[in-house]
Amino acid sequence: MFNQRQLLALQTITEELKAVQQEVEKHFGADYAKAVSTYLGVLLDRIAVASTSFGIWHSGKENLERPFGRQALPMVFDYPESHIFSHSSGSAYNQLDWLTRYIESESDYPFAVGLKNASSGDKDQFPAKFLDVVVTDPPYYDAIAYADLSDFFYVWLKRSLGGLYPENFSTPLTPKSQECTALKHHHDNDKNLAKQHFENKLSEIFAAIEKQTKSIVSIMFAHQSTDAWTTLCNSILQAKMNITGSWPMDSELQGALKTTKSYLASSVTVSARPQRQQPFGDYGTVKENVERTVRAEVDLLYHLGFRGADLLTACFGKAVQEFGQYRTVEKANGDLVEVAELLSMAKDAAFNALLQGFKGDDYSKFYIAWLQLYGFGRTKFDDVAKFSRVGSSLNVQELLQQGILLKESNELYLANYAERIEAQPKLGRNKQTPIIDKVHQGMHLYKSGARGELLRFLSKQAAEAEDPFWRVMAALLELLPKGMEDSKQAEGLLANKENLLKEAQQMPKLGQQNELF
Questions:
Q1: Residue 260: band (very low, low, confident or very high) from pLDDT cuts 50, 70, 90
Q2: What is the pLDDT of residue 454?
Q3: In terms of residue numbers, what domain contains 260?
Q4: Does a structural domain hold residue 370?
Q5: Are 249 and 100 in the same domain?
């Protein structure tokens, strides 16, 4: 992760910081020296993260982006190298400025914080029902390898602060066996073991919270996987807490490495109360309430600008609110309903709600609804098979044959316009063809710059401003990730719509004149 020059610089700074500690201690005492050295250890970490061979140059802002713009270390083929002793982006002075600004900012608040360190799930950290409110943000299932990523910072802190905090840095790397995540590489690559570990740890933690809290528990969660939400809900319910509400909110900064990529931009805050659960709920009633609540939530959030995975995640939160007030949900025959089934029901309700009011063929309806829920991410074959039948009469084979979906291994993903045109160059030319096919052909022709061919195509397929072609194009522009090629072509077509229609409507006359020559 570091070239030889970067390693030499960081190791030299580490040695110099130790010399500074000794000098400060000589003049101001051990406690003051320990405080200063702690801040300098943080400074070293900030310098290290800006001095790697995994950095990225942001050409728009002309500055250095750190590798931790998302929860993974991206591989890069070239990288910018910061000049540590300059005053520009990535320098030690720049990092020191951020650190001192933080200290000054936090020093302005007239509040003190009582901090008690205890392991997660410690039921004796506080007396029973001692806490009024607990606000927590648990790990997001398998989305982030917290401990693995922490190793980057840990190794430099161990070098600079290991002597001051020997208990905190007693292990070669960060401990990982008890981390509350569902990462299979920590459990012999067994996904089921990882899931069980995560659920057990969460249940243990929520049980401790339930014992020590008398009023409200607020839990923030941001994951679109049904497995992740199932595990979260199971853990809350096993702790005998009643899930009473949920609210989606924009919580994630979009930009830098995330600018042109599809990431969750929001989180869902789930509220719960200790020991307030009703014994059981009737499946029919709960199902009806979930469907009604999710439909209303889709309508509201869509108008507020929520799209894609964020919309689906918010719907999970509302569904949880409905069935989370019961210890168990039972069918008429006495069978217990699993949380996963209830969340699947929420997906169905969201999918149907998104299709309401769209008048068009099933292929176009499926494309738009799937784009709203999953974007271009890869999805298991079984999930696609199920949702292809929600609100339509399609099956997976038809979607594959039509080129709406592409398959790789046992996963399917939505095809973009270029992939569909490459497989079917004459896509959308027939009058009876699905609207989404026409739209993708229109994008291809606009991109190619063949204006005459584009105008002839529009004159036959979308010559009127109210044609479904344009409505689908507008819907796609709302949903497609910004910066994606499909989004650029949709934006260009809609921006030039008026002129294109005028010219396209004249094409028959031009065509008759052309036939004279």
A1: very low
A2: 93
A3: 184-355
A4: no
A5: no
Burial (0-12, 13-18, 19+ Cβ within 10 Å), 380: exposed
Give residue 512's region: left, alpha or beta (phi > 0; psi -120 to 50): alpha
- Which DSSP category does 416 fall into? -
pLDDT tens digits for 212-249?
Answer: 998 899 988 777 667 777 888 888 888 888 888 777 77
Please determine, for residue 117, whether its predicted confidence score (pLDDT) is greater than 80: no
Query: Containing H/E element for 56?
Result: strand 56-58
Contact 321, 281 (CB under 8 A): no
Same domain for 89 and 150? yes
pLDDT class of 343 with cuts at 50, 70, 90: confident
Question: In DSSP terms, which residues pair with 463 in a beta bridge?
Answer: none
Work out the mean pLDDT of the chain and round it to a whole number: 83
Distance CA 513, CA 376 (A): 45
User: Is residue 192 domain-shared with residue 278, that is, in the same domain?
Assistant: yes
What pLDDT shows up at residue 257?
Answer: 45
Region 251-271 average pLDDT:
57
Q: Are residues 247 and 343 in the same domain?
A: yes
With respect to residue 386, please indicate whether it lies within any of the assigned structural domains.
no
Residue 17 within any structural domain of the chain: yes
- DSSP E strands, 151-304: 213-221, 241-250, 266-274, 278-282
Burial of 478 (0-12, 13-18, 19+ CB in 10 A): middle
pLDDT of 37 strictly over 70? yes
| Count of the separate structural domains present in the chain | 3
Euclidean distance between CA atoms 163 and 501, whole angstroms: 74
Residue 514 has pLDDT above 60, yes or no: no
- Strands of 175-320 (E only): list them: 213-221, 241-250, 266-274, 278-282
The one-letter amino acid at 361: D
Token pair for residue 403?
């080129």
Verify that 256 and 340 share a domain, yes or no.
yes
CA atoms of 93 and 194, how far apart (whole Å): 42
Residues 149 and 203 in one domain: no
Check whether residue 242 and residue 346 sit in a common domain: yes
Query: Is 193:142 a contact under the CB 8 Å cutoff?
Result: no
Q: Are residues 15 and 88 in the same domain?
A: yes
pLDDT at 23 over 70: yes
pLDDT score of 310 more than 70: no
Does position 511 have pLDDT exceeding 50, yes or no? no
> Quick one: tokens of 188?
């012999």
Residue of 456, 230, 388, 438 whose CA lies nearest to 324? 230
Q: Is residue 77 a part of any domain in this protein?
A: yes
What would the pLDDT profile of 173-196 be if each residue is shown by its tens digit? 998 888 888 899 999 999 889 989
